[in-house]
Every structure is written in structure tokens, then in C-alpha cells.
Amino acid sequence: MKISLVKTTSPKEKPDQNKLGFGRFFTDHMFIMDYSEDKGWHDARIVPYGPLEMDPATAVLHYGQAVFEGMKAYRSPEGKVLLFRPEQNMARLNRSNARMSIPQFDEEFALSAIKKLVTVDQDWIPSAPGTALYLRPFVIGCDNVLGVRASSTYKFMVILSPVGSYYKEGLNPVNIWVEPHYVRAVRGGTGYAKAAGNYAGSLLAQKQAQAKGYSQVLWLDGLERKYVEEVGAMNVFFNIDGELITPDLGDSVLPGITRDSVLKLLDSWSIPTTERKLSVEEIFAAQEEGRLIEAFGCGTAAVISPIGKLGWGDKAIQIGGGKIGEISQRLYDTITGIQNGRLEDPFGWIVEVES
Ligand SMILES: *Cc1c(COP(=O)(O)O)cnc(C)c1O
Questions:
Q1: 237-284 pLDDT per residue, tens
Q2: CATH says 174-339 is which class?
Q3: Burial code of 144-174, b = ≥16 C-beta within 10 A, e = fewer?
Q4: pLDDT per residue over 99-112, tens digit each?
Q5: For the domain 4-165, what is the CATH code?
Q6: Which of 34, 47, 101, 200 reaches 20 to 30 Å from 296, CA-CA?
Q7: From the CA of 70, how far away is ligand 1's center (Å)?
Q8: Is 299 in the pocket of ligand 1 (CB under 6 A)?
Q9: How many angstroms does the Cα of residue 267 sit away from the middle of ligand 1?
């Protein structure tokens, strides 16, 4: 499939690289392709960034048939444009599609479209430390019919946003609240998909945790509310006695690409890792016995986000003296170093965008 290109005639002014925040600015162009049952995916195009016109009956607005991805493009010191394991994002987007009854797309083609879009807007890739161009591919159901069923038409789109660090505090330990009541996902549900509704359903708990002075929630399993699953929209690791433990992937945990990269890096450093069920009780007991060394969330947006304080009911613990753990720091430095081309890439994770 060919990708047509219509360039903007009114390029926007670029934001100050030191005041980017996260997801607040968007580049000059976006990618769109459409799906219909008779034509399949078609009409791939890069066009000026701008609003979509939608019928108020559009399926996604009512029944939430929407999935997305989050990935980043980096500018290397030599000026190359680099992506980090992008084929993994394409594969996951198709798995999310499958769960939400959205048709599959050609992953290689979509990646080539993303590369082309990034090339068109490459002047938007920031280069200040900690910054990147965040890529947001997403798919939405577009039928204009009220009725609970899978849409027969869709749009696949990609928008780009120059970003600074995810948390205002940067790589600083954050306070996390163990959520006792609300759950993010259950067995048989949609937790393993990056489906829009999962995030809408998580907002109330996050808001209530924030009112208590916490920045994110630690989600527990939906059946027993006993075992940890994720922290906010990140996977989570606990260092107990030098062993890095992360919840195993069931269908209620999002299989993070950062999580997988962390596991592979730790392995290569001969640091023991385990994927298993881990209860909050075990974490608090480990802290009491002085065996809980550090804890962190991980995901594309923040990369590594150390957990400083963990609140659970009327108890609260300070992990690692509230400081950034040694392994957290080493992982952050190594992953971001590989991503921005400052460190060697022994795993073959980096994909260069020809420009
Ligand atoms: C996106 C996401 C992650 C992290 O995935 P990455 O591929 O590492 O960015 C973890 N948990 C949830 C719920 C997510 O949405």
C-alpha cells in the first residue's frame, strides 16, 4: 500500500525543549488509514495534524472500541533517529485489536508508516536530556450506528508529541497507594490489552489516592485483592534480598516492553529475577525484616519510576530510605542510554529510521 503525503502549509512553532511536560504538544502531521469490510485497510495517508470530524453516533464514543500504543523516537548524538523495539508495539497493538474485536493490520506496513511520519516531523524530535518524541498509534471503531456490536469500519492513526519527563519530579521516588477496593483488571477481562476503557476505569482510584497525597495506585489482583499486579500504568518490580520479583503475566497484566527489557538486562547482569505471584503482605513483611531493598514501576513513558513510599490501609513504609535504588538507577541509565544511542545495544533493540 502506498502512503500519500500532504504537507502542512502552516507549520507550528516548536515548544521550548525544557518545558515540554508530557503529551501537551503535537507535531505538524499525523498518519491515518481507514478500514472497511470490502476494502480492508486502505487510503494510508500522512496529512496535516488537525481535528477529526465525527458523527455523534460514532461507535467509539459510545461503546469504547479503542486501543492504543505508546512508544518513543530518540535523536542520537550523531543525529540519527532511533526507535526502541517498535515491532513489539505493533505486535501488541494487534493483540489488543484481537481482544477488542478490531481487525488485524499488517505490522510491517504500519511500522513503515510510523517511520515515514517520524521522518516527516523529525525536526520535532527534542534532544535535551530526558526528552523524546512520544508516538501514539491508536485504532478506533467508526460505524455511525447505535448498537452494541463490533464496528465494521475503523481508523488507525498515529500522532506524535515531543515530551519531557513523565513525572514533574523526574527520576524521583513517588508515593504509591495500595488500592484495596477498586481493581484494574480481572481474569478473562481486558487487562492485557492497551484498551482505552481500562484507563477510564482506573481514574477514580487514582484521583482518590492523589487526594491522600499519593501519585499512583498499586493495583491488586481482581479475585482476592491480595497479589500485586501493576502500579498505575506501569509494570512493577520489587527487590527482596537481591532478587528482582515481578508479577507473572496473566491476562490481567499488561505485558510491558520495558518490563521485558528490564528482565533481559537483569539476566545479562546475572541479577536473579522471578516472575511470580507476590502478595502485599509478603512485601510489608520483607520490609519489616529489612529485606525489601528497592521497588520501581517501569514503562515507556517514565522508563523507571522508583517507589519511595507505599501506603496500605493504615500502614505506610518508606522503601530504600526514600532514595533511588542502585538497580533502579542502573536500569534507568542503561535503558535510556541504549534508547538514545549513547550506549551500545547488545540486544539488537534499536531500529534506525532512515532519514
Ligand atoms: C503501557 C503499559 C505498561 C508499560 O508497557 P511498556 O510497553 O513498557 O510501555 C504497563 N502497564 C500498563 C497498564 C500499560 O498501559
A1: 999 999 999 999 999 999 999 999 999 999 999 999 999 999 999 999
A2: alpha beta
A3: eeeeeeebebbbbbbbbbbbbbbeeeebebb
A4: 999 999 999 999 99
A5: 3.30.470.10
A6: 200
A7: 8
A8: yes
A9: 21
